[in-house]
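Students often ask why inverse folding is considered easier than folding. One informal answer: many sequences map to the same fold, so there is more than one right answer. In these notes we will look at a single instance of the problem. The structure comes first.
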């Protein structure tokens, strides 16, 4: 988590000008960096449960966006992403029970329980070196790496709109395009859109 806080190279990747230009086009205004992640899914590793990024980031009033870059080609066999087309229009999908909400934090688990029967996740293969951009409310996850000799490494950035007023505590400090902290984005008070079982302090 947050390799940009420890590596100048990771910070350069996160603030890569073509990525920021695309995000500005999608947001309609400049983007701010909230998070980076480096995933290294080796052979035999399991996938990640279906989730929505803004369940965790709590970005408001605008949404967050992800920039998901494939360091290795992401294919079905080595655990590519699966997404539910159109699910970003549904808002945040909350667990139906407090027990489900309390157990969301297990790696590989999903905060969306029960999973809507009408949802049909589809695989999204991404060539090595390509970047996929997607909405913070898009339901997505990934499959396991079933290969014997191929990793599925990815570098991921999560960004918020420059006009955002809040993002969860875990994502502070928020950085501008020059890598400087901004001071107008506050930490939200209270729980998540799903209640007080999630307060945004860990991911």
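Output (designed amino acids):
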């Amino acid at each position: 988590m947050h390799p940009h806080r420890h590596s100048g190279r990771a910070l350069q990747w996160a603030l890569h000008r073509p990525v920021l230009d695309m995000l500005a086009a999608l947001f309609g205004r400049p983007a701010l960096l909230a998070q980076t992640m480096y995933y290294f899914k080796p052979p035999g590793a399991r996938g990640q449960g279906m989730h929505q990024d803004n369940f965790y980031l709590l970005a408001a009033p605008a949404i967050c966006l992800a920039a998901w870059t494939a360091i290795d080609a992401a294919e079905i066999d080595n655990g590519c992403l699966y997404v539910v087309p159109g699910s970003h229009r549904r808002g945040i999908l909350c667990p139906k029970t407090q027990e489900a909400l309390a157990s969301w934090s297990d790696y590989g688990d999903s905060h969306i329980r029960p999973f809507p029967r009408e949802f049909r996740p589809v695989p999204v293969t991404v060539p090595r070196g390509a970047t996929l951009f997607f909405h913070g409310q898009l339901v997505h996850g990934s499959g396991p790496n079933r290969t014997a000799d191929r990793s599925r490494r990815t570098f991921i950035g999560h960004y918020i709109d420059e006009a955002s007023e809040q993002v969860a505590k875990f994502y502070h400090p928020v950085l501008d395009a020059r890598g400087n902290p901004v001071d107008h984005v506050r930490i939200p008070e209270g729980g998540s859109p799903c209640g007080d079982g999630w307060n945004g302090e860990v991911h």
